[in-house]
Amino acid sequence: MSNIKYCSFPVTPKAALAELLSRKNEALAVAGGTLAAKTLPETTVNFVELKNLPLNYIKMRGPDLVIGAMATFDDIDNSKLVGSWAGGVISTAAARCSSQLIRNMATIGGNIARPHSFNIFPAVLLGLDAKVKILCKTGVKTCAFSDIYLADFKFRPGRDCLILEVVIPGKTRNWTCRFEKFAKTEASWEAYLTLFMAAEINSGSMNEIRVAVGALSPKPFRARGAEKVLAGAELSAGVIDAAVVELERDMDVVRASEFKKEVSASLFRRFLEVL
Amino acid sequence: MKKESIRLEAVNGVFRISLTVNGVKKNFAVKNNEFLLNALRRYGYKGAKKGCDTGDCGSCTVIFNGKPALACLIPAFTAHGAEITTIEGVGTVRNPHPLQEAFVEAGAVQCGFCIPGMILSSKHLLDVNPSPSEDDIKKYLDGNLCRCTGYVKQIQAVKMAAKKIKKA
C-alpha cells in the first residue's frame, strides 16, 4: 500500500471505470475490501473505493433476481426476496461466509472479482446459471458467470472493467438446492470445500441437475460426470451410488485430496437421499 | 445532499481526511499504508483494540457508516467522509449504556480486551432488533472472539440489556 498516491471515491460506475482506465495496471477497484485490503499489489497507485456506488440493490427484473455488485453478504442474508429464491440457497451461502463483521463489509461483487479459491459465491452462482453484467470501455456487457473464469476472458474485473450486478435466471426460482461449506470452524473464511447441488424431479425423472464445486482450485467447476448420471434418470439407490462414484471421479480430475473427496461424496449422497 | 465523485491525493505518502468520530468532526493525517485501527488509536481512541490484525478476532470493531466493521481491515484513507462510532462514544463511566451495565452485572467481563467489540456489535444488534433470540445474538457475536470466557455470560448480558432498554 505504500505506493498509493490517490484514493478516488466515484459515485457512478462510469466515473469508477474512468478512474480505472486512467491509470492502467496501477488502479485497483475495491468493494468491501475484506480480502483485498491486506493483499493489495504493491503496484497500486490509485485506490478506487467503490462504497459510494449505488449498486447495493436486490430486486426482481422481469422473472430474474438481480443483485447489485455492492450488496453485502449481510444484505443478501437478510433479503426476504433472496431468502425465497431456490429454497433460500443464496442466503444460506451468504450466512455461511465467515463472521457477521465480515458479512457487514464483504460484497458479492468483490467475492467474484477476486479469484480466491475459498470464496463462497462462485460455486452457487455457477450452479444457478447466473449471468454477470459488467461495465467496460465499450459499454455494458452481459456474460455467463462461468465466462469470467475462462482463460480467454478479455477483461479483468476491478482493473479494466467493473462488475455491476449478478443476474439469477427466473427458471431457478423454485429449484431444490443445497449449499454446503466444509471448513475448520463455522466462522472460518477459508473453506476446504464448497458444494452446490440442485435437482428437480418431474414425472419421476430427474432434471435441472447441477453439482458445482468450489474451494479446490481458483476456478469453481461443474461435476459434469455426476450430473450426466442423474439427468433424466429415476432416483434409486443404484443411481445414487453411480452418481456418487462419478462425483469422486470428477474430484480426482482436479486432484482433490482424499478427505475432500469423501466429504463431497457424503454430502452429495445426503442431498440425493432426501430429494 | 447529492454526493459527488472525489479524489484524494497523498503528499509524501500522507492523506488528509475528514471524518466524524462519535458525532464530532475530525481531521486526520493518515499514512497511505495505515489502517483505520492504527489511525484511531494514534488519535486517542484506544477502545478499539489490536488483536489479530487480520480480521479474525473482532477486538478492533467500530461502527462504520452504520454497521459494525473491522477497523484493522479498512485502509485509513478510505474513511474520508465516514461516520464512525467507537466504544468511547457509547456511554460514560458515570452514565454507562445499558449494555455496559448488563455486561458488568452478568459477569461477562474478565480481561476486557474483547469487550469494546462485543458491546459495539451488540449495540448494533439491539438497534436493529430490540428483541433478539439467542441464535440472533450468537450469529451477531460470531466474529468477536473472547479467550477468557465461554460466551455464555455475554449472551446473558445482551438479553439482560435488551430487557433494560425495553423497560427504559
Give the secondary structure arrangement, pairings included.
The complex is a heterodimer of chains A (275) and B (168).
Chain A: E1 6-9, H1 13-22, E2 27-30, E3 46-49, E4 58-61, E5 64-68, H2 73-78, H3 80-83, H4 89-95, H5 100-105, H6 108-113, H7 121-127, E6 131-136, E7 139-144, E8 162-168, E9 176-183, E10 191-202, E11 205-214, E12 221-222, H8 224-230, H9 237-253, H10 258-273
Parallel strand pairs in A: 1-3, 2-3
Antiparallel strand pairs in A: 4-5, 5-8, 6-7, 6-8, 9-10, 10-11, 11-12
Chain B: E1 6-9, E2 14-21, E3 24-31, H1 36-42, E4 61-64, E5 67-70, E6 83-85, H2 98-105, H3 115-128, H4 134-140, H5 152-167
Parallel strand pairs in B: 2-6
Antiparallel strand pairs in B: 2-3, 4-5, 4-6
Q: What does the model show?
A:
The complex is a heterodimer of chains A (275) and B (168). With 275 residues, chain A is of the alpha+beta class. Chain A folds into 3 domains: 6-49, no CATH class; 58-171, Uridine Diphospho-n-acetylenolpyruvylglucosamine Reductase, domain 3; 175-273, CO dehydrogenase flavoprotein, C-terminal domain (Enolase-like, domain 1), CATH 3.30.390.50. Chain A has helices at 13-22, 73-78, 80-83, 89-95, 100-105, 108-113, 121-127, 224-230, 237-253, 258-273, and strands at residues 6-9, 27-30, 46-49, 58-61, 64-68, 131-136, 139-144, 162-168, 176-183, 191-202, 205-214, 221-222. In chain A, the strands form 3 sheets. Chain A has a 5-stranded antiparallel sheet. A 4-stranded antiparallel sheet of chain A has the order 9-10-11-12, sandwiched between helices. In chain A, strands 1-3-2 form a 3-stranded parallel sheet, covered by helices on one side. In chain A, helix 9 packs antiparallel against helix 10. Chain B has helices at 36-42, 98-105, 115-128, 134-140, 152-167; strands at residues 6-9, 14-21, 24-31, 61-64, 67-70, 83-85. In chain B, strand 4 (61-64) and strand 5 (67-70) form a beta hairpin. A 5-stranded mixed sheet of chain B has the order 3-2-6-4-5, with helices on one face. Chain B has 2 domains: 14-89, Ubiquitin-like (UB roll), CATH 3.10.20; 98-167, [2Fe-2S]-binding domain (DNA polymerase, domain 1), CATH 1.10.150.120. Strand 1 (6-9) of chain A pairs antiparallel with strand 1 (6-9) of chain B.
